[in-house]
Design a protein that fits this description.
The complex is a heterodimer of chains A (257) and B (260).
Chain A: E1 6-15, E2 18-28, E3 33-37, H1 44-52, E4 59-64, E5 67-68, H2 74-81, E6 84-87, H3 99-110, H4 115-128, H5 145-158, E7 163-167, H6 175-192, E8 195-200, H7 203-209, E9 212-217, E10 220-226, H8 236-243
Parallel strand pairs in A: 3-8, 3-9, 6-7, 7-8
Antiparallel strand pairs in A: 1-2, 1-4, 4-5, 9-10
Helix pairs in contact in A: 3-4, 3-5, 4-5, 5-6, 6-7
Chain B: H1 4-34, H2 40-50, H3 55-78, H4 86-124, H5 127-133, H6 138-175, H7 181-191, H8 194-220, H9 225-256
The chains are: A alpha/beta (257), B mainly alpha (260).
Chain lengths: 257, 260
């Protein structure tokens, strides 16, 4: 525990009058897989974006590999970002370039690899996620949702990052494809030995991917523990969430008529 | 009831905030132009999209405007037997004002909207965030190529627009109004000065900057799904139009305002 890969200390973020994060404390050890669960709009995506530097927290510190990324130069950030891979919720594939170039993007733009070598690596990564060679030459818009997710995964692992973020990796997929993605994530991460942070509200996915779980509620981490402890957390909020009950301490903001 | 001073204050504050945000965006973009690397392959692609694909619409605009202008000047001039002013006025009007302004507006309609829609969609589908996570600066990859391409392409398009505009006037004047072709061309050449051409090209370069800046700014900062992208597209075109007309006025006053 001495030197966690990612550590957040008292991170706060507001958008105007809306306080999204109200003091997040969280740490992920090297090689560990942490899954943050929580309902929609609880600040899961904002947490990821703060760590990546896409958003700047209002207060608090975020350490990646011991370095405070909230007080870092643009060059330093670029160096840190080269350690990251991310699978976006909607895939976020670039639709102006073919699939293989999407996968190779970080290698070509970030690491300056030549196109021919990058293409070979990209096609190999596509094979790794179960996509045939010819898929690499299609446009992202020609792919199904599940295939796009797999391409997104291939892109996230292409530059063999030390840290990978998964933003809702199974959202919008059928249960079987969701499980295929879960298996791929577990395998790829094991291969790379990467540290991962996943946000999801899909409990089946969370149970499969996680070593540890944390629950985010109203801008705070209300529970954190090993995967095996989630079923006897003793926390009413966690119980309600993992069993998907409408009744409980978490009240949805729905106008009752 | 809200205090009217409060409302006025709020309008001014939000206007200044917007100007500040736009200036910061422009400043960041320009600072990236000054710092290599620049993705020239993307610049070339954008030049093709902006330039070549705009040729038909810019050409037609110039042709019809030049011809209509010749007809109007002829009608006006004939009231005091001054039909011979047609070539001179046509070439001055086209090169100094109508070529760059109408050309710029047509390109803005095509290009600012397309940029805003493309970048806006990239924003709402998280493609711009994805660029950052792939160690690629979105300003360098998306904005800088568009601005450079637009600034380089617009003067080329305006040269074409000027030539075709003058041609439109020439064709109408010689074919329909019976002016002498040789004399028409002679007067045209005599009338045009270097300053006219230079100011025309300077205007075009500034318009190119405004077109790309407005398209990029509104697309890059769009929020909230399809509706947000639609709004960004509209704002990009409207603000590009306004900026082109305002820049045109400023350059015209600066370049020609000193003359008697």
């Amino acid at each position: 525990m001495a030197n966690p890969m990612i550590s957040l200390q008292n991170v706060c973020k507001s958008f105007g009058p809306k306080h999204i994060l109200k003091g997040i404390n969280l740490s992920v050890d090297k090689g560990q897989s942490l899954v943050i669960i929580g309902g929609s709009g609880t600040g899961k995506s904002v947490t990821l974006k703060c760590i990546l530097g896409l958003l700047t927290p209002d207060s608090g510190s975020i350490f990646v590999n011991g370095q405070d990324v909230t007080k870092i130069s643009a060059n330093g950030r670029k160096k840190i970002l080269s350690k990251f891979g991310m699978l976006f919720q909607g895939g976020a594939l670039f639709d102006s370039i073919p699939v293989w170039e999407n996968v190779a993007f970080g290698l070509i733009q970030g690491k300056g690899l030549n196109k021919k070598d990058a293409q070979e690596i990209a096609l190999e990564k596509l094979r790794r996620v179960g996509l045939a060679r010819d898929v690499g030459f299609l446009s992202p818009s020609e792919l199904s949702g599940g295939m796009q997710k797999r391409v997104g995964l291939a892109r996230a692992i292409a530059s063999e990052p030390e840290i990978i973020f998964f933003d809702e990796p199974t959202t919008g997929l059928d249960p079987i494809m969701a499980d295929v993605i879960n298996d791929l994530i577990v395998e790829c991460v094991k291969d790379l030995g990467a540290t991962t942070l996943t946000i999801t509200h899909d409990m089946a996915s969370a149970r499969k991917i996680a070593d540890r779980m944390a629950m985010l509620y109203q801008g705070k981490i209300i529970w954190e523990g090993a995967k095996t402890d989630i079923d006897h957390s003793g926390n009413d909020h966690v119980d309600q969430f993992i069993h998907g009950r409408a009744e409980g301490p978490i009240q949805m903001e729905i106008l009752k008529t | 009831m809200p205090n009217p001073l409060q409302i006025i204050g709020r309008i001014f504050l939000s206007a200044f905030a917007e100007i500040g945000k736009l200036s910061k965006f422009a400043g960041t973009s320009l600072s990236h132009i000054a710092r290599p690397p620049i993705y020239w392959r993307l610049v070339a692609k954008q030049m093709w999209l902006i330039g070549y694909n705009s040729l038909p619409v810019v050409g037609m605009t110039a042709l019809f405007t030049g011809a209509a202008l010749a007809q109007q000047i002829y009608v006006g001039g004939s009231r005091f037997n001054a039909e011979s002013v047609v070539p001179g006025v046509v070439v001055i009007a086209i090169v100094r004002e109508l070529g760059p302004v109408l050309g710029g507006l047509m390109v803005a309609g095509r290009v600012s909207s397309a940029m805003a829609a493309e970048l806006g969609t990239m924003r709402v589908t998280e493609q711009i965030d994805a660029l950052t996570t792939l160690s690629t600066d979105p300003y360098k990859y998306l904005i800088v190529p568009r601005i450079i391409a637009s600034v380089l392409t617009l003067p080329l398009l305006v040269i074409v627009a000027n030539l075709i505009g003058v041609l439109g006037g020439y064709v109408l004047a010689t074919e329909r109004l019976g002016l002498n072709a040789g004399i028409y061309l002679q007067i045209t050449v005599d009338f045009i000065e270097q300053a006219d051409v230079v100011s025309s090209l300077i205007k075009a370069a500034f318009f190119g900057f405004m077109i790309a800046l407005m398209g990029s700014y509104h697309g890059f900062n769009s929020r909230g799904g399809a509706q947000g992208v639609g709004k960004a597209t509209t704002n990009a075109v409207v603000s590009a139009f306004i900026m082109i007309l305002l820049t045109n006025l400023i350059i015209t006053v600066v370049v020609f305002g000193g003359r008697g």
